[in-house]
Amino acid sequence: MLRTGTARGFSLPEALIAIAIMVAGLAGSASMLLQTVRQERESGNRRAAIRIASSMADQLRAIRRPDARPVMAVSGIDPDTACAGAPANCAAEHAAEQLRLAWAAEAAQSLPQGATITVTIPDPVICAYLISIAWAATGGGVERLDLPVST
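The structure corresponding to this sequence follows.
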């Protein structure tokens, strides 16, 4: 006996439309996952930069020259040049040079390749510094952290 009635199931066009909708949803989810991973990486870079800058600030507060001026070697000036004429300042200047090199090594290890650390001294009479850390952002461009420090 032959039955004539509606068959149960999906037709080919219905199945293709369902697959297309599912693929679009999966593509959107994958895109969102990639964006989340990128933002997490940037967040990790920011945390590393803040940690390095805070460490630098604490150590800059601990280094003192006897004449109460800022240590110039931390900005990249040769320590012997920075303490010329005042031998009592040489120990602080040499310590600052060693710290600057250690910070640069830590930044090279913790931040993306090409990261730079600079310490500027706005006024050579006032013991204050500006720590700047820059690194390449994941999506292109440059991220920058500036931390003013007064001692």
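The beta strands are 116-120, 128-136, 142-150.
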